Amino acid sequence: MATESDRGRDSRRPTQMPREGWKDILARTGRRIGEDHVSVMAGGIAFFGLVALVPALAAVISIAGILYEPGVVTEQIAQAGAFLPQDVVDILQSQAAGIASRTGGGLGLAALAGLLLSLYSASRGVNNLIEGINLAYNENETRGLVLRNLVALALTLLLATLAILAMGALVLTPALLSVFGFTGNVELLVTLGSYVLLALAFMVSLGVIYRYAPARRPAKWSWVSLGAVCATAAWLAASALFSVYVTNFGSYNETYGALGGVIILLLWLWISCFVVLLGAQLNAETEHQTARDTTRGPDRPMGERGAYMADTLGAGRGEDKTG
């Protein structure tokens, strides 16, 4: 029978977790996917994400308009067709083009008011994601309405900023290739590198969300990184596989007619939300495996850490399922 040390109860970071500890973590994570109805929660978040999609695009285009031509966003969305279903790309492009046609460069008073309204509307979708991550970490929302909305607004602004920086990488890459005369395999490598930057931006944004979204003392970065890395890899793989399925085997347009593209977009959002929540569940149960303090700041004894997963120990396989 595995001892406490074999289970990783003394691990200071996930990389120190032994094999038996990972078996416990994965067993609890799998169990909680069903107990917390993660697929249903992901469906709810995906729906509100769909509602918030246009305001989110408007916010990104408004900010990007300060640095780039508004149409740049539409062009960059087209490049995502390598791993997104074409119907999703078409809808995003159509919405972005409509917004860009109404958005000028610069940031006057009217544009600033529109940007703030777009950010607030998009943050309502992030609020639903916060609720799902609270559930993953077994936390009740204790922040007041104002503070919770400020957290959601800050996370929304962060995501928009990361999207714009990633766009900048894609915009600058061809220009740099042209200046230095790179062609052939070098061009391919640099182009692939720009997509790696996109993946890194997604991973960083997930790490920030996992750390600051739940209503608890923030976890140390090492305890949110694992879920961010795994969720990013799973999201890229799932998006690519879903794209292949829709292109070669799906018949949504025949079944749903004009609504086919919207159904595909909603399914892709559901997959994305499920993967993000799965990363949060994995992070939470990894914290739940160690008796060491996983929260920010000086070490505190269990019960005084301000985080359920850090203040309690998860049951090992074969033990009573407490927590």
UniProtKB/TrEMBL annotation:
The keyword Transmembrane applies. One of its GO terms (cellular component) is plasma membrane. Residues 1-13 have a biased composition (Basic and acidic residues). Residues 1-20 are annotated as: Disordered. The chain crosses the membrane at residues 38-68, 99-120, 150-172, 192-212, 224-246, 258-280. It holds the Pfam family Virul_fac_BrkB. InterPro entries: Virul_fac_BrkB. It comes from the Bacteria. It comes from Histidinibacterium lentulum. Its main location: membrane. The keyword Cell inner membrane does not apply. This is YihY/virulence factor BrkB family protein. Keywords: Cell membrane, Membrane, Transmembrane, Transmembrane helix. It is a multi-pass membrane protein. It is found in: Cell membrane.
